[in-house]
Design brief:
Blueprint: H1 2-31, E1 54-55, E2 61-67, E3 72-78, E4 82-91, E5 103-109, E6 115-116, E7 118-120, E8 124-126, E9 133-140, E10 157-167, E11 176-187, H2 206-218, H3 222-233, H4 252-274
Helix pairs in contact: 1-4, 2-3
Amino acid sequence: MRTTKLSTTAGLLGACALTALLGAGTAFAGSGDSGSSGDDRAPTEAGTSFRTAQEVEQGLRATADASTGDYLYWSFPADAGQRPTVKATVKLPDSAARPSGATWRIDVYDGLRRRQSCMYGTQSRAAAQDATSVGLSCTLRTVRAWSEQWANDPLPGTYYVRLTAAVMTPSDQGLPVSAEVEVTSKEVGGSSAVDGSLAAPLVPGSTTQEAAAASDDASADASDEKNGSSASQALATGEPEDGWSSGWWSDRWVWTAAGGILAALAGIGGYALTRGTGRPSRVPPGM
């Protein structure tokens, strides 16, 4: 009876501990989901280069009016453990005013301006003669908290989206179009976690911003302040809503702690089952 009670108690304690740890893991993972508050507004124009790329938060839909042949740039932040998906829609003019269909393409670059490959999605598509819009998408690989210098793995920091007509005829060039871009992310979790983290996210211009701020504090020269402010405006400053985590948390912590607790409870239960009930009554003391 005593052994049964100990085993039952150990089982209940293990179930309670596992439930609590799983709940904690869900809470931490939910805190890192991409999203945006209702007060934020998406940009209504696009940049024409990496330095003038319009910043857009994940979950918001950016729009822009342009012409066929323009290069449109947006930027967004992505943190470790996220798998971003970029979706773009190009609304075309009436088919009567469009002699032929151009081929549209979307590309994604990381903070070092390295082109990132897509796991899946329609990255390039030719517009049909009677099409009113063209849809593109690109799902990146999971952003890693750390990587080797020679690797081309996605790392935490700023990412750039470039949308343009890759192939077109002279009659297509200059036709008015409107574009929509939206970025969402899936929290992958500990299955892609690595041991290590970057000293700082790959946000271009962060060192320049720090140097400009130090120069402004040390000198009150008006021209220096003007140059520093203009340089800061051209640099990417966006970051996730909850800040950069750099991979310090993953659900592997939950499963590791749960495994340790369950192993300890299994040891206690095994000892309770095998230790017996003590000295038999028929054995005299001292034997």
